[in-house]
Every structure is written in C-alpha cells, then in structure tokens.
Amino acid sequence: MLWWRRTAPDRADQAEVDRLVESWSRVCESIGLTDDRDTVTGVTHVVPRIEHVTLGGRCAEHATEERTCGCAPAPTVLSVRLVPGMLVEDIRDKGRRIARSMGAQSLRVEARGFTHALVTLLTEDPLDRVLSLPEGPLTGPVLIGTDEQGQDLTAGPADLGHLAVQGATGSGKSAFLYALLSQLAARDGVTVTGVDPSGILLRPFQGSLLGLSDPEIIADHVHRLVVEMDQRIKRIPRDRDCLPESEGLRFLVFEEYPGLLRYLDAADPKIGKRVRALVARLLAEGRKAGLRVILVAQRAEAAVIGSTERGQCSTRVSFRVDGPDAVKLLHPDADPDTAAAHASSVPGVALVSSPGRPLTRVRAPWIGGYSEYVRRISDAA
Ligand SMILES: Nc1ncnc2c1ncn2[C@@H]1O[C@H](COP(=O)(O)OP(=O)(O)OP(=O)(O)O)[C@@H](O)[C@H]1O
Ligand SMILES: [Mg+2]
Question: CATH: 3.40.50.300, 1.10.1370.30, 3.40.366.10, 3.40.190.80. Which one for 131-380?
Fold first, then answer.
C-alpha cells in the first residue's frame, strides 16, 4: 500500500499522488532505471517503488491550507525502495531527466539505509544562490563548489591534479580562480605562478609573466618553468617516484591559453609550436615534480586542449559555454540534456569532472570580488 501524508487529504491530493507515481514509473522505464527480470511471459521491467509521498506546496511546519505564515513552501518528497543492485547514485545520475518528467527543476537524492532513497522534487534550482566563501581553514582540502545535493565538492591541493577551466565571457572563470587560488595560496608550501595575457588574474603573484610581451620572452618564461620542473625531477629521492610534499606544490596557471597560443602563432608559428611542446611536457611530467598546471580558456578548443591534454587534466571545470559541443570538449561523458541545459547556466554554476566522481553540477564559491582576492593573496604571502 502507498502511504502519503498531508493534513486534510482531499481528492486533488490523491490525484497528485497518482500523477507522481505514474510519471515516476514512466520515466524510470524510459531511462532504464529498472530491474529487468526474465519471466515465462518475457522480460518484466521492475521500477523502484514509491512507498511514501509527502506532498509539498505548503509550509512544512504549519501545514496550513492557505499560505499565510510566510514560510517557504515545502517540496514534495518521495520515499523510494530501490530495486536489487541499484544505488542512490543511479537515481542521481539521471536526476535531471527524472526531475523534468515530474515537473520539477532538479532532484535531491539521499540514501536511507541500503534499501531506500529519499527523493526531494526541487522546484527551484538549488544552485541559484551565491555561495560565499569565508576565509577558511589554512590546511586540508580546498572547496571547488557545492553540488545540487548540498554536498561540498572538495579536493586536497595535491589531489586536484592538472586543471582545465573553460567558460564564455562573464560565466565565472575568474571568480572561481580567485576563490581557488586564494585557498591554495593560504596553504603552507603551495605557490602559484604562470602566464597571464591580461595581467589581472596573476598580478598578485610575484614572478608571473603578465601581459602579452615579446613572443620570445613568453617562450623563454615557459622554458624556465620546464627547466625548474627538470631540476625538481632530479631531486626526487632514489626510493620514490615523485617529489616529497615537503618540497612544496607549485601551480602554474596559463590564463586564456588558446588566446596566448593564437598570439604566438600569429607572431611566429615556430614560437607557438615551441610553447605547445613545453606545456605538453609540463602536463606529462609535472605531476611527479609537484607541479600542477591550470589551463584556462573561454572554449577548450580541441586544437589546444585535445584528448591527450583532457586526459592529463584530472579536474575539468566548465562554466556556461555556447552549447553542448563545447561541454563535450571537457566532459565527453555529459548526457545530452545536461550539456544542453548548461548553455543557459548563470555565472558561477559549473560542471565538474573530477577523479572518482561522476560529472557533478556545482555552484562555485564567491569570495567577494577582485579587491578581496588581492587582499587574501597579500595576507597569505
Ligand atoms: N561564483 C559566483 N557567485 C556569484 N557571482 C558570480 C560568480 N561567478 C561569477 N559571478 C558574477 O559574474 C561576473 C563575471 O564573472 P567572471 O569575471 O568570473 O567571468 P569570466 O568567466 O572570468 O569572464 P571573462 O572571460 O570575460 O574574463 C562576476 O563579476 C560576478 O558578478
Ligand atoms: Mg575572467
């Protein structure tokens, strides 16, 4: 028997419960979220069963018929019994498609023991709000963002690996990097440098190459980063395969990397080729030398961040880009709905591929603008 709860149940409520159960079953069948059993009459598709419905729409606490209390309306919550072999992650992975079929914006899916999931139908995008990043801990993992389930997506500085960040103009790349670099700079033993054609992002970091100068100077600067990498590799102890953490972790940022290469190619294609080869070495060998590369682009063009570079960047972040094809450049596993919907994301909302996690939609942290970024970096120095 299906249970549902709300004060003063009426026919309209019953009809709504029936509609939810019906659309749940239909969408689960159509996306293959089923336990398929061979029977004498053929294959039967068993969907995860809704066992309880708490209808939303009214204030959860006061449960008044009229919304007079001023509280936010409560969302509808389904209690679902998983079919054998199914995980809550299986529902989460298909959350966007299920939500849309059930008239919701997105789903929050929480485990209830090993056999049940609590599925909340969210009518508003949970990422549609600013995530302020207070001055946080000086040790431990850094915050990449908060996901649709309200969970923090974090990574230890060393575990970030190389990063690729893309997004159209105004989509939130710089704001994300302000938050990320200020968290990194606050940690002992972590340093940041790189090449920044516009000269704004890396201005607070001494030793960075700012602005588009003589192409030879840019190539020599990147060459020096590779020489530094080679020296660090030589310092790897004989009984280890990577530089100990005590030698420090160094992040090398290439802001607007495709634009940088275009500039170099236009000046002298040989210099462009040389810089590509140097960055390829940093990506291929930097990890064991305690170096992490961050490639930033408005669009991670395949000619610049091809499948090799994509594979080497274990953390890949896409803010709003112009369409599903651009999403696929960094996240080939993105399903068509997610990739298409991302074209209209608000600034600060990103898709993130990171080690050991399926593609995750997150709200990136906001530290409060450029002057706050400069202050945090100078405080960390
Ligand atoms: N995480 C966020 N939270 C709240 N607001 C944000 C966030 N990220 C970006 N914004 C808003 O969007 C604006 C543009 O963001 P940002 O400067 O980071 O874009 P961008 O991708 O670096 O653009 P460009 O390619 O032109 O440099 C910010 O000034 C801010 O108002
Ligand atoms: Mg920017």
Answer: 3.40.50.300
* Dihedral sign of CA atoms 308, 340, 99, 365 in order: positive
Query: What pTM does this model have?
Result: 0.84
Architecture of domain 3-122: 2-Layer Sandwich (3.30)
Q: What are the domain boundaries of the chain?
A: 3-122, 131-380
Ligand 1 closest atom vs CA 365: 1
Q: If you measure from the C-alpha of residue 25 to the centroid of ligand 2, how many angstroms do you get, rounded to a whole number?
A: 44
Q: Which residue's alpha carbon is nearest to atom 24 within ligand 1?
A: 169
Which range, of 21-30, 67-76, 85-94, 371-380, averages the lowest pLDDT? 67-76
Cα–Cα distances (Å) from 186 to 176, 183, 191, in that order, read: 16, 5, 9
Q: What is the pLDDT of residues 143-152, one digit of tens each?
A: 999 998 889 9
Q: How far is the CA of 255 from the centre of ligand 1 (A)?
A: 15
Ligand 1: which atom is nearest the Cα of residue 369? 29
* Among the listed residues 354, 343, 373, the one whose alpha carbon sits nearest the alpha carbon of residue 171: 343
